[in-house]
Write a structure and sequence with these properties.
The complex is a heterodimer of chains A (537) and B (337).
Chain A: H1 3-16, H2 22-34, E1 35-40, H3 56-65, E2 70-76, E3 82-91, E4 94-99, E5 105-110, H4 124-136, H5 140-147, E6 156-160, E7 163-167, H6 175-178, H7 189-194, H8 204-209, E8 217-223, E9 227-232, E10 246-251, H9 255-263, E11 269-270, H10 275-283, E12 288-294, E13 298-304, H11 314-323, H12 326-333, E14 338-340, H13 363-372, E15 379-386, H14 390-404, E16 409-416, H15 418-427, E17 432-438, H16 444-451, H17 467-477, H18 482-499, E18 502-515, E19 518-519, E20 522-523, E21 535-536
Helix pairs in contact in A: 1-2, 11-13, 12-14, 16-17, 17-18
Chain B: H1 2-29, H2 34-38, H3 45-54, H4 61-73, H5 87-122, H6 127-141, H7 144-158, H8 183-189, H9 193-230, H10 233-240, H11 245-275, H12 277-282, H13 288-297, H14 301-329
Helix pairs in contact in B: 1-14, 5-6, 5-9, 5-11, 6-9, 7-9, 8-9, 9-11, 11-14, 13-14
Classes of the chains: A alpha+beta (537), B mainly alpha (337).
Chain lengths: 537, 337
C-alpha cells in the first residue's frame, strides 16, 4: 500500500466514523487486501451469456457467477504464466463422470452439497433445463453447443436428482470439452422459471439483469456501461474458496487513463490496451507487471476473396504472401507483441497450431509470380478492416498498401465501423481483408472448420472452397487414431498454406497488466478474467 | 402565464412528431446491420436471420414504425440491445450524470466568463481584455478530450491532487439512494457527507474541462454585448445624469446586455449535453453522450431514437424556460397571451 492511499483512507475513515481511530484504519486496510479493482474498456452488456447479443465481457460473468459441470485443468506455460489445460477436464459441479463402454454417452454425478446462490440445491433437472435453454435461445449459444455435437434436447436425460446423462450423436472429441465452456453454464431453473413469462419461457428478459447461478461470485451490483461488482459466494462447493472477497470492475474507456490509474496504484488490473502500451509497460520498472500469452488458436491475417479475379489465381495470392512486409508489421503495428506466423525454415511437421508459413518478404519472388500469373501490369483493389481493431489493423493496412504498390497492386484502404463489419463479412464481397479469428476449442480442425471449410462459415472470409481440404478437416474431427489424425492435420495445413487464400501474419498476445502484488492470474481461452484464483500478496 | 406555457407545450407537439418520424427513418437508413452485429462471434447467415426475426427487423418499415409508435404511446421506449436494458432506464440513470456534469460546468463557466466579459468590455485593450481573448481562443481551439487528458495527467498523475478518473465515485464508496440522480443532491438527502465530498472531488476535473470549452462563447458574448450596450444612448444619458458608475454598469448596462448571453447559454447548454461524449470517455463518466455514440456504432435503433427524442424534449423545455427567464430580465419580453 502506498502512503498516499493510506492517507486518503485514513481521512475517509476518520471523517465517516468520527469516534473510531485505529480499528477503522485496519478495517479499511483489510478491505483493500480483499478487494480487487479492475478497469476495462467495456463491461458486460448483460448477465446472461445465452442471451441475444451477449458481448465478450458477458462470458466473464457466466464464468464467475455460474458453474459448469466440468472445468479445465491448469498448467504452467514456458514463460511461467499459469494457463488452463485444454487436454484435461476436472470436476466442477459434477464430482465425477463415467463414459459408457460403447463411448456413446456420459453419466455425471453431481455434488450433493452444492447449492445455488439462493440456497436451492443443484439438481440434474437444473442441468437439463440449462442445456435445453442453450439450444433454445438460438444464435451463439446454440452454435457453440452444436460445435460439440450437442444438438437435440433428447440427448440430455435426468436419471435422478444427482445423476445426469448425455447421449452422444456421434463420437466427437469436442463433446466433452464443449460442456466446460461458458455457454454450458448451469442455471437455477426454479428461480428462472419464477421469472419467466408466456412469451418468454426461458426468462431471457429477467436473466439479462439478474443471475440465477451458483458460481464462486455473486453479482452484488450491476450498472451496465459503468460497473459490475462481484461478492464472493461463501458457500461455494465446486472448488477452493477464492481469496478475493469483492471485485469491482469499472469501465474506463481511455487506455491512457487506465495506464495512469495502474501506475498510480488506484486499480489492480487492466486488460485490452494497445500493444504499444503493453510493450512499454513491460519494459518499465515500477509497480506494474505484464503477463503475456500468445492467444491460443488465434491469428491476425490478410484474407483474399478467391471467388473473384484476380485473387482466384493462386499465383497472385502467393505473390501477395511474398510481398507483405512482415518484419515491419511486427515492429510498427504489433510492437513485437505476438508470435510471428511467417518465415518458417522447415515445412509443417506436427499438429501444432497455429504454425508459421514459409513465406518471407521476397520482392523478386513476388514479381516473378505476378509475371507468371500474367499480372505484371498490376491491378487495383481495396483492403478492408474493422475500425474496432484499428490500433493494430490500421498501421498494418498502411504497411501492406505500401508494399503491394511494389508489385503494381494499387490498394485503397477501407475502414469499416464495428457494426457494419460483421454485415460486411457476411456479404463476402470484400476483395481483401485484415481480420482476426480465434477459436475456443484448441484444435486445428476446429479452427479450419470455421475458417477454411467449404461450409463457408462467416469466418471463411476468403470464401475458400476445396473438397480435398474439407475431406481432411472432416476426417480429422472424428479420427480416433493419432497417427492418421496427424496426417490429416498436416494435410490440410499444407494445402491451405500452399494455396494461401489467407496469409497468416501473427499470433496475437493476450496481455494483462497488473500490480506486482497480484498473484494467481490464469490465462483462459475465453480471454476473460478469472478472479477465483487471484490473490494479493 | 400558465395558459401560455401550455400553449407553448402544445405547439411543440408537431415538432416532436417530426422528430419521431425523422429519427425512425434516419436510423433505418444507417448502413449497419444490427442483426449481424448481435449475432456475435460465430454468427452464421441463419443465426443472423433468427436474430433479425427476434428483433422484429424482418417486418416492413411501416409495420416497424407502427410497433414503435404504439410502444412509445404506452411509455415503452424500447430495448437497447447493446446494453440489454430498456432505453428508459438507461436514460433515467445516465441523463442525471450528464446533467450534473453539464450544470456544474455551466455554473463554473458563468461565474468566470461573465465577470471576465464585463471587465474586458469596460477596459477594452487592457491586459484583462487580452486575457479574456486568450482564454476564449484557447478554450475553443483546444479539443475537450485533449484538455481532459492534459488535466488528468497533470493534476492526477503528476501532482496527485485530483482523484482517480474512475467515474462519478471512488470505487470504495457506494452511490447514494437515487432520488434526483444527482449524486451531490442525493448524498445530502441521505446525509452521507463522505459520498458528497467524494462525488464533488470526482466532478472537479471534468467540470473544469467542460467549463474551459464553454467559457469562450459566453465570455465573448458578454464582452460584445456589453460593448454594444455601453455605447448606447441611454448609458450616455445615465452617465451624463451623474449616476454612480456601479449603478450604470450593473443596473442598466448589464441587465440589457444579458439577453444575448442567456440565448447563448441556452444554446451552449443543449449543445453540451449531447456533445460532452469525449469528456465522458476520458473521465469514464457514465453519461448519455457515450451511451448514444455506442448505440450508433452498434446500429442499435431504440437508444438512438430515445436519445434524440429525449434531447428534443429537453430542448423544448429549455427554450421555454429561457423565454420565461427573458421576461424577468426584460419585462418587454414577457410572454403575453
Amino acid at each position: 500500500m502506498k502512503p498516499r492511499t493510506l492517507h486518503r483512507s485514513f481521512l475517509f475513515a476518520t471523517s465517516v466514523v468520527l469516534l473510531a481511530g485505529m480499528p477503522a484504519l485496519s478495517f479499511a486496510q483489510d478491505k483493500k487486501q480483499e478487494t480487487l479493482i479492475v478497469a476495462n474498456e467495456t463491461g458486460p452488456n448483460m448477465l446472461d451469456i445465452q442471451g441475444v447479443g451477449a458481448n465478450r465481457p458477458a462470458y466473464g460473468v457466466a464464468w464467475l457467477a455460474y458453474d459448469r459441470l466440468m472445468t479445465y485443468g491448469k498448467k504452467k506455460l514456458a514463460n511461467g504464466v499459469q494457463s488452463y489445460d485444454f487436454a484435461k477436464l476436472e470436476p466442477e459441479l459434477a464430482e465425477s463422470w463415467q463414459i459408457a463402454k460403447d463411448g456413446m454417452s456420459v453419466t455425471f454425478k453431481l455434488r450433493k452439497n452444492a447449492t445455488f446462490h439462493d440456497g436451492t440445491p443443484v439438481t440434474a433437472k437444473d442441468v437439463k433445463w440449462s442445456y435445453d435453454r442453450a439450444l433454445a435461445m438460438g444464435g451463439f449459444p446454440t452454435f457453440q453447443m452444436k460445435a460439440g455435437s450437442l444438438e437435440k434436447p433428447e440427448q440430455f436425460e435426468v436419471v435422478d436428482d444427482s445423476t445426469f446423462k448425455v447421449s452422444f450423436l456421434r463420437k466427437d472429441k469436442m463433446t466433452m470439452p464443449d460442456m466446460a465452456v461458458p455457454v454450458a453454464s448451469i442455471y437455477n431453473s426454479a428461480l428462472a422459471l419464477k421469472n419467466a413469462t408466456k412469451e418468454d419461457p426461458w426468462a431471457g428478459a429477467w436473466l439479462k439483469n439478474n443471475t440465477a447461478g451458483g458460481g464462486a461470485y455473486k453479482v452484488a451490483s450491476y450498472k451496465p456501461g459503468q460497473e459490475i461488482i462481484y461478492e464472493r459466494f461463501d458457500d461455494w462447493k465446486s472448488g477452493p474458496l477464492p481469496k478475493i472477497k469483492r471485485v469491482i470492475q469499472r469501465e474506463v474507456p481511455s487506455a491512457g487513463n487506465r495506464r495512469a490509474l495502474l501506475a498510480k496504484g488506484d486499480i489492480d488490473m487492466t486488460y485490452e490496451m494497445p500493444p504499444k502500451d503493453f510493450a512499454e509497460m513491460s519494459q518499465e520498472k515500477g509497480n506494474v507487471k505484464v503477463s503475456s500469452v500468445p492467444a491460443e488458436n488465434s491469428m491476425i491475417y490478410v484474407g483474399m476473396n478467391v471467388t473473384k479475379p484476380p485473387f482466384d489465381n493462386p499465383k497472385v495470392r502467393q505473390a501477395v504472401a511474398y510481398v507483405l512486409p512482415y518484419d515491419k508489421i511486427m515492429q510498427s503495428a504489433m510492437y513485437g507483441r505476438g508470435a510471428p506466423l511467417f518465415g518458417a525454415k522447415k515445412p509443417v511437421t506436427g499438429t501444432e497450431w497455429p504454425t508459421a508459413t514459409s513465406y518471407t518478404t521476397d520482392l523478386a519472388k513476388a514479381k516473378a509470380l505476378m509475371k507468371e500469373a500474367g499480372m505484371e501490369a498490376g491491378f487495383e483493389t481495396t483492403l478492408s478492416f474493422d475500425l474496432g481493431q484499428g490500433t493494430v489493423s490500421e498501421p498494418m493496412a498502411i504497411l501492406a498498401q505500401e508494399a503491394l504498390a511494389q508489385i503494381n497492386i494499387k490498394v485503397a484502404v477501407n475502414k469499416v465501423p464495428g457494426a457494419n463489419w460483421r454485415a460486411a463479412l457476411l456479404k463476402k464481397d470484400m476483395p481483401m481483408t485484415i481480420n482476426r479469428f480465434g477459436g475456443w476449442l484448441n484444435y486445428p480442425e476446429y479452427f479450419f472448420l470455421w475458417t477454411y471449410h467449404g461450409q463457408n462459415a462467416v469466418f471463411n472470409t476468403m470464401s475458400y472452397q476445396n473438397p480435398a481440404v474439407d475431406k481432411l478437416i472432416d476426417a480429422a474431427r472424428f479420427e480416433g487414431d493419432k497417427k492418421k489424425y496427424a496426417q490429416d492435420v498436416k494435410g490440410f495445413i499444407d494445402i491451405a498454406y500452399a494455396e494461401v487464400p489467407r496469409v497468416p501474419v501473427v499470433q496475437p498476445m493476450v496481455d494483462v497488466a497488473m500490480q506486482k502484488n497480484i498473484e494467481g492470474y490464469t490465462y483462459w481461452f475465453h480471454l476473460q478474467p478469472d478472479y477465483r484464483q487471484i490473490y494479493k500478496k | 402565464m400558465i395558459s401560455t406555457i401550455l400553449k407553448r407545450l402544445l405547439g411543440a407537439i408537431p415538432n416532436l412528431i417530426g422528430v419521431v418520424v425523422v429519427t425512425f427513418l434516419l436510423t433505418r437508413a444507417l448502413p449497419g446491420d444490427p442483426a449481424a452485429f448481435f449475432a456475435g462471434a460465430s454468427g452464421t447467415a441463419e443465426a443472423v436471420e433468427e436474430i433479425r426475426k427476434k428483433l422484429g427487423l424482418d417486418k416492413s418499415l411501416p409495420e416497424q414504425f407502427i410497433v414503435y409508435v404504439r410502444d412509445l404511446a404506452r411509455g415503452d421506449w424500447g430495448m437497447s440491445h447493446a446494453t440489454g436494458q430498456s432505453v428508459l432506464t438507461e436514460l433515467t440513470t445516465r441523463l442525471p450524470a450528464s446533467l450534473e456534469l453539464t450544470l456544474a460546468a455551466l455554473f463554473l463557466a458563468v461565474i468566470v466568463a461573465i465577470p471576465l466579459g464585463i471587465l474586458a468590455a469596460t477596459r477594452p485593450g487592457s491586459w484583462i481584455d487580452h486575457l479574456c481573448r486568450g482564454i476564449a481562443t484557447a478554450g475553443v481551439s483546444l479539443p475537450t478530450f485533449f484538455t481532459g487528458l492534459l488535466l488528468a495527467y497533470v493534476f492526477y498523475f503528476l501532482l496527485g491532487w485530483a482523484p482517480a478518473p474512475l467515474g462519478r465515485l471512488d470505487p470504495y464508496l457506494s452511490a447514494p439512494a437515487q432520488v434526483t440522480g444527482f449524486y451531490l443532491i442525493d448524498s445530502l438527502i441521505a446525509r452521507d457527507f463522505a459520498v458528497f465530498v467524494g462525488a464533488l472531488k470526482q466532478l472537479i476535473l471534468p467540470t473544469v474541462t467542460l467549463a474551459l470549452f464553454v467559457l469562450a462563447p459566453l465570455a465573448r458574448m458578454t464582452r460584445a454585448s456589453m460593448l454594444g450596450v455601453l455605447s448606447a444612448d441611454f448609458i450616455r444619458t445615465a452617465r451624463a445624469s451623474g449616476l454612480a458608475p456601479r449603478t450604470v454598469l450593473f443596473t442598466y448596462a448589464f441587465r440589457n446586455a444579458l439577453l444575448p448571453v442567456m440565448t447563448t447559454l441556452g444554446m451552449v447548454f443543449s449543445f453540451l449535453l449531447g456533445s460532452n461524449v469525449l469528456v465522458e470517455k476520458v473521465f469514464a463518466w457514465p453519461g448519455i453522450g457515450s451511451f448514444a455514440i455506442e448505440a450508433l456504432v452498434a446500429s442499435d435503433y431504440a437508444p438512438v431514437q430515445g436519445f434524440v427524442l429525449s434531447m428534443a424534449l429537453l430542448y423544448v423545455l429549455l427554450n421555454l424556460s429561457i423565454d420565461i427567464a427573458y421576461g424577468f430580465v426584460d419585462p418587454r419580453m414577457k410572454i403575453e397571451n
